[in-house]
Design a protein that fits this description.
By secondary structure, this protein is α/β, with parallel strands linked by helices. The protein has helices at about 1-15, 20-40, 40-45, 50-55, 100-120, 140-155, 170-185, 210-225, 240-250, 275-285, 295-300, 330-335, 350-360, 370, 375-390, 395-415, 425-445, and strands spanning about 60-65, 75-85, 90-95, 125-130, 160-165, 235, 255-260, 265-270, 300-305, 315-320, 340-345, 365.
Length: about 450
């Protein structure tokens, strides 16, 4: 019964949103979890909540003209998807990457609605970005682009309306340039963006939050099975913000990270990426903007060109780069090599085939909307501090983040228990747990 409903529902979604496979994939995953729950909760069916949730409240697309260092005119496309504001102002990152198009941002905005709901903080869901590629651009070119991008975006956002943050290709540098332009246009110093630098309104722990939070959630899943990260070999993909702070927290909890990667290849360091080596990675990636290959040369370890880390044996995997980076085959290799837990630092890094492999093997699998919610949760804490014009200590923010991740784990356990055993389907738990809160708010607010 539920299955037929999912098929019919998806046929309509695909027809209304053609050529957006990532969006279809994200919606399908939620529909598969939520439809059986809806069968028993007709009030949501009658109000067509699921049909409304897949329709963005607003989609903004705009031209971003700018001039490169040689004086040549460049044109990019900018987007902001304001997906759902039932729980609070729209909140979600901006992605600058050449692969960005409407379908990617709709998938990310859709995921964000459920993720933000899971954090328990008052935030709706949104996402935005551009097909601009910051790679290989000078600081001056990045600034010119950011200023032009914000000139249009500023009309649509505000501290009580829509508060963007970073994502792939948008770090502290880009947030700074965009904040400066917003302030200049509005003559207002407000918390309109999160991920700001500490000395002008940022929050301690925000840079660390996604990686730390993902690691806390994996530790909670392992603790639930009377296990922990201590002594575990971990593979991490990516080498950006999420990957770096995942390495830091895994080390603090007694695990050992043996891989990092970027879009060119993977480094395998069986001795483990300790604090000193991580400092090298941070300098390489955040300051020099170099390639991960240079780590292998520096520390005399293996570099595997054009490959992801999933064939390297590990106990725990942390995909922290990009969507669909773990295929069904990769998932099989991970399980076969003894992987017992996966924490998705990235958004939707596992394909539907891969997710089925993890579910069938009954390993601990935390989907992105639960596992990487620590980033936006701490953005929410940054907003609270901005509103109060206060700055909390590192310890205070970290404790709040840890508490939120444990609460997300509890929600997943509550809605994700399968049968009489102890197995928790965290995908189901996160999808239903995230859905209920948004759905109830939508019911309360009438037909909007
Ligand atoms: P960064 O831009 O800091 O790093 C992205 C990393 O992923 C880089 O190492 C990059 O390598 C790699 N990468 C990008 N595209 C590909 C590709 N096609 N194949 C392999 N590797 C690739 O981004 P973040 O660390 O912020 O984001 C990583 C993931 O985490 C994304 O999915 C993002 O949506 C998600 N996320 C981030 C949050 C945050 O707070 N930052 C919050 C929640 C989720 P290269 O340098 O070669 O491009």
């Amino acid at each position: 019964m539920a299955n037929t409903n999912v098929k019919q529902f998806m046929a309509k979604v695909i027809k209304r949103n053609p050529n957006e496979p990532e969006f279809h994939q994200a919606v399908l995953e939620v529909a598969e979890s939520v439809m059986p729950f809806l069968e028993k909760n007709k009030k949501y069916v009658d109000a067509k909540i699921l049909e409304r949730i897949v329709e963005p409240e607003r989609v903004i697309m705009f031209r971003v003209p700018w001039q490169n260092d040689r004086g040549k005119v460049q044109i990019n496309r900018g987007f902001r998807i304001e997906m759902n504001s039932a729980l609070g102002p729209y909140k979600g990152g901006l992605r600058f990457h050449p692969t960005v198009y409407l379908g990617i941002l709709k998938f990310l905005a859709f995921e964000q609605v459920f993720k933000n709901s899971l954090t328990t903080l008052p935030m709706g869901g949104g996402k935005g970005g551009s097909d601009f590629d910051p790679k290989g651009k000078s600081d001056n070119e990045v600034m010119k682009f950011c200023q032009s991008f914000m000139t249009e975006l500023s009309r649509h956002i505000g501290p009580n309306t829509d508060i963007p943050a970073g994502d792939i290709g948008v770090g502290g540098r880009e947030i700074g340039f965009m904040f400066g332009q917003y302030k200049r246009l509005r003559n207002e110093f407000t918390g309109v963006l999160t991920g700001k630098a500490l000395n002008w309104g940022g929050s301690l722990i925000r840079p660390e939050a996604t990686g730390y939070g993902c690691t806390y959630l994996v530790e909670a899943m392992l603790n639930y099975r009377k296990d922990s990260l201590k002594g575990k070999a971990c593979t991490v993909s990516g080498s950006g913000n999420v990957a770096q702070y995942t390495v830091e927290k895994v080390n603090q909890l007694g695990g050992k990270v043996v891989t990092l990667s970027d879009s060119s290849g993977t480094v395998h360091d069986p001795k483990g990426i300790d604090e000193k080596k991580l400092a090298f990675v941070m300098e390489l990636k955040n300051v020099k903007r170099g390639r991960i290959k240079e780590y292998a040369a520096k520390y005399n370890c293996k570099y595997i060109e054009g490959q992801r880390p999933w064939n390297i044996p590990c106990d725990v995997a942390f995909p922290s780069a990009v969507q669909n980076e773990i295929s069904g085959e990769d998932a099989e290799a991970l399980v076969k090599n003894g992987c017992i837990a996966v924490g998705e630092g990235a958004n939707m890094p596992t394909t539907p085939e891969g997710v089925k492999v993890f579910q069938n093997a009954k390993i601990c699998f935390a989907p992105g909307k639960a596992a990487n919610a620590g980033g936006v949760a701490t953005s929410g804490l940054e907003m609270s501090q901005n509103s109060q014009r206060l700055a909390w200590t590192r310890k205070e923010v970290d404790e709040k983040l840890h508490g939120i991740m444990l609460a997300i784990h509890d929600t997943c356990v509550r809605y994700g228990k399968e049968g009489k055993g102890k197995y928790i389907d965290y995908v189901k738990g996160a999808n239903i747990g995230g859905f209920v809160k948004v759905a109830d708010a939508m019911l309360d607010q009438g037909l909007v």
